[in-house]
């Protein structure tokens, strides 16, 4: 069975590279375009697999173009799909992204589709109970909460990629061992003014093992209830930042599976995310483990 299993969004992305943001009600020729798989947990599972860990996706996919693409993409990267339910006649979660060259930013418009919510079956529950890490992202919230309870009862770590302030996430936060929110999420849910204050508030409110707040170009901080540490953003020529946070979380799960402590996981994940940003495509640009190890050594950090 897979060491790392995940429940969350799986998005059919269409990416357009553009030189700059167009004015409203005009036309612009893209530099290039492509389709790709996206979604926090789904992309995180691909990242962890490319870094050498066994992963499996638990979810519902359609049999439309997007759903077929998702399943084939998982198979291509070695993510197990035996725990996926296929539903006919539904519309997949899809998005269109603009990757802007002059500002090195991305803009996303999405449609969540009309797939029914995930309801865990016995095989999926058994896979969760026998894993080492459960990744969740706040999507498929009811199933994620049920899965987190199963994980907690079987000594499985719950890693929560906290990106969206969805209704009901507090229940999932209570079940989280490894809490990795964006700074925006952390400040938004706590009402704090600084990341350090938010990390402490989240830790004291929800009692995870660790809180890691990602701060984009500023790196991030981690708090274990006793002390703060920080980690840097590693140098990279950014071509495509889309999915960098998803990759960070997947790399963090892989780091835990490899036995790294939490600070080492932060450095490892930051490096993986930096390398990913040098290529187009959140999944295909994730490096293998040896590439990351070499890159970190070149930048003064030994795994």
Instruction: Supply the CATH superfamily name.
Output: Ribokinase
Low-confidence stretches: none
Helix/strand class: alpha/beta
Number of domains: 1
Please write the CATH class name: Alpha Beta
Please describe what this structure looks like.
The protein has 303 residues and is an alpha/beta fold. The protein has a single domain, classed as Ribokinase (UDP-N-acetylmuramoyl-L-alanine:D-glutamate ligase). It is 36% helix and 23% strand. The protein is built from 10 helices and 14 strands. The protein has helices at 40-50, 65-77, 122-129, 141-152, 169-173, 183-190, 195-206, 244-257, 262-276, 289-298, and strands at 4-7, 11-18, 32-38, 55-57, 59-62, 84-87, 94-100, 105-111, 133-136, 157-162, 178-181, 210-214, 220-223, 228-231. The strands form 3 sheets. Strands 4-1-9-10-11-12-13-14 form an 8-stranded mixed beta sheet, with helices on both faces. A 4-stranded mixed beta sheet has the order 3-2-7-8. A two-stranded parallel ribbon has the order 5-6. Helix 6 (183-190) packs across helix 7 (195-206) and helix 9 packs across helix 10 (289-298). The longest helix has 15 residues, at 262-276. The chain is globular, with a radius of gyration of 18 Å. The two termini are 27 Å apart. The mean pLDDT is 95.
Topology (elements, then pairings):
Layout (H helix, E strand, L loop, with lengths): L3 E4 L3 E8 L13 E7 L1 H11 L4 E3 L1 E4 L2 H13 L6 E4 L6 E7 L4 E7 L10 H8 L3 E4 L4 H12 L4 E6 L6 H5 L4 E4 L1 H8 L4 H12 L3 E5 L5 E4 L4 E4 L12 H14 L4 H15 L12 H10 L5
Parallel strand pairs: 1-4, 1-9, 2-7, 5-6, 9-10, 10-11, 11-12
Antiparallel strand pairs: 2-3, 7-8, 12-13, 13-14
Helix pairs in contact: 1-8, 6-7, 8-9, 9-10
């Amino acid at each position: 069975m897979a060491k790392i299993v995940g429940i969350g969004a799986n998005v059919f992305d269409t990416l357009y590279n553009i030189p700059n943001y167009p004015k409203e009600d005009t036309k612009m020729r893209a530099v290039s375009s492509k389709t790709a798989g996206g979604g926090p947990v789904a992309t995180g599972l691909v990242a962890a697999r490319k870094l050498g860990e066994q992963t499996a996706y638990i979810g519902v996919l359609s049999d439309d173009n997007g759903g077929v693409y998702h399943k084939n993409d998982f198979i291509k990267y070695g993510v197990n799909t035996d725990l996926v339910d296929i539903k006919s006649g539904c519309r997949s979660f899809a998005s269109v992204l603009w990757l802007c060259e002059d500002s090195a930013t991305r803009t996303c418009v999405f449609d969540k589709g009309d797939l029914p919510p995930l309801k865990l079956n016995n095989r999926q529950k058994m896979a969760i109970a026998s894993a080492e890490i459960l990744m969740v992202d706040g999507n498929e919230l009811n199933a994620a909460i049920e899965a987190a309870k199963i994980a907690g009862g079987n000594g499985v770590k719950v890693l929560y990629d906290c990106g969206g302030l969805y209704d009901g996430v507090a229940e999932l936060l209570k079940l989280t061992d490894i809490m990795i929110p964006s700074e925006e999420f952390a400040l938004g849910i706590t009402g704090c003014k600084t990341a350090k204050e938010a990390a402490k508030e989240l830790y004291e409110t929800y009692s995870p093992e660790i809180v890691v707040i990602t701060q984009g170009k500023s790196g991030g901080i981690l708090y274990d209830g006793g002390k703060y540490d920080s980690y840097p953003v590693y140098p990279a020529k950014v071509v495509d930042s889309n999915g960098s946070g998803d990759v960070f979380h997947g790399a963090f799960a892989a780091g835990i599976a490899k036995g790294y402590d939490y600070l080492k996981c932060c450095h490892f994940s930051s490096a993986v995310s930096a390398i990913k940003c040098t290529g187009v495509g959140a999944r295909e640009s994730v490096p293998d483990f040896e590439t990351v190890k070499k890159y970190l050594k070149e930048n003064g950090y030994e795994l």
